[in-house]
Specification:
Helix content is about 40%, strand content about 25%. It has about 240 residues and is of the alpha/beta class.
Length: about 240
């Protein structure tokens, strides 16, 4: 469903942000990218979402590579991308935003209201549907963003730090929803720097350090590879061994 092969990204001639990364994400699985700030997670996610073009290497989404405008359109139909970098129109409302994006994704007009009710009920957005975005809490904005990002029920879900800055309850709601998407056979790639999120949600985890995957596997496999007793200890051992000052 997602296939990343030897991807590199350079912003300047002598500096690489992503250095030869490869991985695959299959349907019904959550693939985690775990790493410190500056490891290249967001750059990698933006390339998978086609917002950035790799300097070299290839990325396939549902067997499609973004070589032409037509390819890009087909990929965009198949992905839902959420990042904290995307800001909602502060003067709009959840109702207006949902209707706008539903029409953008060609959701049948007679289905929009029913789909919106299901989505808003799922996240408790209903009571805030006609409030301006600027008046909503951080958690509610995030839930509105998720509802909009997945409005077209894409088979591929790309979430960059989806629980970052959220309170405990909202973070739990978002995590539970990701597990529901997994049960619906979505291929999910999740970027995070929170150990508990990676442990509870991810089937496979890649530890990204200085633009490279230092190790990959389940939490149990990563602990075995590093001869440690906790996932947190495994990460810090990998970081110490692979980070260059």
């Amino acid at each position: 469903m997602i296939k990343v092969t030897d991807v590199h990204k350079s912003y300047t001639k002598n500096t690489e942000t992503v250095k030869g990364v490869s991985f695959e994400v299959k349907p019904g699985t959550v693939f985690g990218l775990l790493g410190p700030n500056g490891a290249g997670k967001t750059t990698l996610m933006q390339m998978v979402a086609t917002l950035l073009k790799p300097s070299s290497g290839s990325i396939e989404i549902c067997g499609i590579t973004a070589n032409t405008e037509k390819d890009l359109l087909e990929i965009h139909k198949r992905i839902g991308f959420l990042t904290t970098e995307v800001k909602l129109d502060p003067l709009s409302t959840p109702n207006k935003l949902y209707d706008f994006f539903a029409r953008l994704y060609d959701i049948p007009e007679d289905s929009i209201s029913a789909c919106k009710k299901v989505s808003f009920d799922r996240f408790g957005i209903g009571p805030f549907a006609d409030k301006r975005i600027v008046e909503l809490s951080t958690g509610m904005k995030q839930k509105v963003s998720i509802a909009i990002s997945l409005i077209h029920e894409p088979p591929v879900v790309i979430f960059d730090e989806p629980t970052n800055g959220l309170d405990i309850l909202t973070s739990k709601q978002v995590s539970d929803y990701l597990l529901e998407l997994k049960e619906k056979n979505r291929a999910i790639i999740l970027s995070t720097h929170i150990f508990s999120v990676a442990e509870s949600l991810c089937d496979d985890i890649a530890i990204l350090i200085d633009g490279r995957i230092a190790a990959q596997g389940t939490t149990t496999e990563l602990m075995a590879q590093t001869s440690t007793s906790t996932f947190e200890d495994a990460f810090f051992k990998l970081y110490t061994e692979n980070h260059k000052e």
